[in-house]
Amino acid sequence: MHLDHDHPHTHPHDHEHPHDHGCGEHIHCGEHHDCAGCGQNVDPRTELMALMRYMVGHNTQHANELAGLAKKLDDMGDHTAYEQVMQAVADFEKGNLRLSTVLASLDHQ
Prior knowledge:
The protein is mainly alpha-helical and 109 residues long. The protein has helices at residues 35-38, 44-75, 79-107, and strands at residues 25-28, 31-34.
């Protein structure tokens, strides 16, 4: 987890809980809702799948950020560090592929 960083983001960050965005906001179907106040009874499977979709997108954004950092390392002449960071990017992508496979399977059940 990266609590202290100063790179720009186009996505929200919460380092406490992956689907809690403060003040009771949670991710449902790709949107932010206050579960207590929305009056909707979201079933656990729908909420779980929405959270998994969010995590896949979030991981993709971080993989892209890491690839950018790797390029900077390579530009600075540190090819070994570049290769290691790109391996981390590959790990993100591999994990996302596994999650996407699970989501596709759950969508068809």
